[in-house]
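We store amino acids, tokens; thus:
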Amino acid sequence: MKTFSSWLASPWRRSAAAAVAGALPVLAFPAPSLWWFAYVALVPWIALARTAPTGRRAAFDGWWGGFGFMLAMHHWLLPNLHVFTFVLAALLGALWAPWGWLVRRLLGGAPPRGRVVAALVVLPSAWLAVELVRSWEALGGPWGVLGASQWQVTAALRLASVGGVWLLSFLVVLLNVAVAVLLTVRRARVPAVTALVAAGAVTASVWAGSPVAEADGRARIAVVQPGVVAGPDSADRRFDREVRLTRRLVGQGVDLVVWGESSVGFDLGARPDLARRLAALSRTTGAEILVNVDARRSDRPGIYKSSVLVGPDGPTGDRYDKMRLVPFGEYIPARSLLGWATSVGEAAGEDRRRGTGQVVMDAGTGLRIGPMVCFESAFPDISRNLAEDGADVLLAQSSTSTFQQSWAPAQHASLAALRAAETGRPMVHATLTGVSAVHGPDGGRAGPWLGTDTSTTRVYDVPLAHGTTPYVRFGDWPLYAALLVLAAWVTTETVRSVLLRRRPAPGPPAPHARTAHGSPARPGH
């Protein structure tokens, strides 16, 4: 029977194994949500890369593992982008090629303890560097950041208030490297155990020392989730359903009503009848209504997605135009080069226009709200900026109706917990078709989620808090620290390489001295 090592001798089998290993961490995210699995999910991938016969093969193991991770994380795009989903996964997967090379460089063979200690810091730092690069909007944004798998772990949310989701990613990778060392490098178990103990000590100290978001007020916020409305005239019929659902709020003393993304399919300037109906709803409910308009604007060219606040007298003038657009869904990067994607999937036929700045709105009762649209809730800097600008509540208006039966709605909703914990501000994630969710300033749930099978209105008593978390104060410091670690390691390796090249080669051995009789001299003579 062939051993597993001999089976991996085939490059294609090894590549397939790397892709499967790379896909495993997705099980830690919703919908499976096996959060604990994240602590060991990278171990097979690490074990494979460290045994690569060459550095080049280890880089391919990293690439194929990244391909598997990206494809599994975005598998729900397949019905829409078709073959282009594989192209995107392959392009993004290449970001992990250097990481795979580093795994072999630091842990390959029988590494000395010094290299193992370096691996426990350098490999998590290199992972953060990959997450930083792929967080660029044009590459898909920070969807599926490894630390986001810990959205329901109380201790992890406390850590997020200190270093954001980036600190969680670093610690999760550190744990995986330590476990991989324990299982595969017996002579280095002491550093691995030390790393595990240190990670536990850091978690405990942060738990004890970080400020806790304490509620100092409450707001009653209603989420209107109309459910799936398809077919002809869907925009009009959806609006009518949202109006009916909102009327249920009369007499409930709500402070704000939130509709989901693309809840209004017409520009309110071009449809004053809709603006009047919304104003009437605001008067009867006693609350302003935050809607989301997805339409060609009447006052400027182009299609915008905009959060618009409507009060008793109509639109208040507070408007936020979405700034970070979904690649291929709302615009096509380098359309002249990649425009062919519209022929093989449901990519954007026309690019949406971008907003120019974030907005904090006054909801009329002294409640200051910071709106985001769709996958903008995946970007930690957007919510952090809103908290710095004085938002009491973070709001994300979203729609994942295209992906109703996939893992996408739950993955998206889970991000609200992280953004809330990072900023110490409650967050409302309101969608057209589910999953809608509300999380308090500590990241914990502030009421039940509204699933994808629900068409309803729900009022949440949302706790408010106004402290400043370390993450809001100091920003993305784990990313900067990771880049410094990588720079220090590269510098050290470069200096060591230069010194080795300059060291003079040992000369030939000196000939033995001979006596007058011609025989070699012996010691002591």
Observations:
- The chain has a mean pLDDT of 89.
- The first helix runs from residue 4 to 7.
- The chain has 18 helices and eleven strands.
- Residues 110 and 186 are 9 Å apart (CA to CA).
